[in-house]
Amino acid sequence: MKFDLHIHSCLSPCANLDMAPSEIVSRAVAAGMDGIALTDHQSARNTPAIAECARRAGIKCLFGMEVQTSEEVHSLALFDTVEQALAMTEWVYAAMPKRVNDPETFGDQPVVTWDDDIVEMEWRILAMGCRRTIPETATKVHELGGLFIAAHVDRANHSVIGALGAIPEPMVDSERQPGGGRFYDAVELSRTADDAIWLPKISDYAVTRSSDAHNAEDVARVWTEAEGDFSVAGLKSIFAAKATRLSPRLTSF
Ligand SMILES: [Zn+2]
Ligand SMILES: [Zn+2]
Predict the structure, then answer these.
(1) Are the C-beta atoms of 43 and 122 separated by less than 8 Å?
(2) I need a labelling partner for 17 at 20 to 30 A (CA). Which of 27, 107, 153, 182 fits?
(3) Ligand nearest to the backbone CA of 158
């Protein structure tokens, strides 16, 4: 199966407004994806819409977000259900600055329906980090039954290696996560990362490549392949076996 685990909808302030859940799903189906994940910045409020679009199109979908923690690092939190993703959203929102978005500066943040109507504009600034740390966030994601993936670790900005110099590991027993014990279940390379340089640096981890699409043309331009079920449990066993294959990278952005 082929999957793209990092896609932004119009709810992300930096994403194009053409990124309606319906458009994301039709692009992913046309690109031959078996599974996708919706990962807006700090919020899963468009997951109910994409769940319905995915159901109608017969493509599998995981529901989550790209969390920006207090280290200014981006990590993906992925869940099997909309309810889990919305519970994660509540937990992140509770640690966000209570500042009202300025669309002129940061961009619009529409919450939409499956058939492209605007429900409301999210008022919080989703372009800002929350006060949760990586260990706290990993623990919350795993308590809720999700997957935690270090996003675009090859990038200098907002990546765990860029910010901390390495992928953090639990230092004390209380930080150990269920299963493997580590904070991250897998590590993501960006669409342009040079595999020959990066794969040796992260060989302790399962590796994914996803589009991080912010506009429709970029959905599933790169992807990950593996044999198994497209679900949290299925991906957990694929990651434990480090059994992923990456699509070719793009040599221009
Ligand atoms: Zn990011
Ligand atoms: Zn992203």
Answers:
(1) yes
(2) 153
(3) 1
The pair of structure tokens assigned to 67 is 């969390």
The pTM of this model reads 0.97
Domain for residue 253, yes or no? no
Domain membership of residue 137 as a residue range: 2-246
Q: What is the largest CA-CA distance in the chain?
A: 48
Per-residue pLDDT band for 233 (boundaries 50, 70, 90) equals very high
pLDDT value of position 253: 60
Question: Half-sphere exposure (CA, 13 Å, Cβ side) for 41?
Answer: 27
For residue 107, how far is its CA from the centre of ligand 2 (angstroms)? 15
Counting the structural domains of the chain, the total is 1
- H/E stretch holding 61 reads strand 60-68
Rounded to the nearest whole angstrom, what is the distance from the C-alpha of residue 177 to the centroid of ligand 2?
24
User: Residue 131 is part of a domain; what is its CATH number?
Assistant: 3.20.20.140
Nearest to 37 by CA among 84, 72, 71: 84
